[in-house]
Amino acid sequence: MGGARALALDDKIGNFGVGKEADFVVLDPAVSPLQKLRHENSRELADQLFLLMTLGDDRNVYRTYVDGKVVYRAAAHQEAA
Question: Which residues form the Amidohydrolase-related domain (predicted)?
Answer without folding.
Answer: 2-71
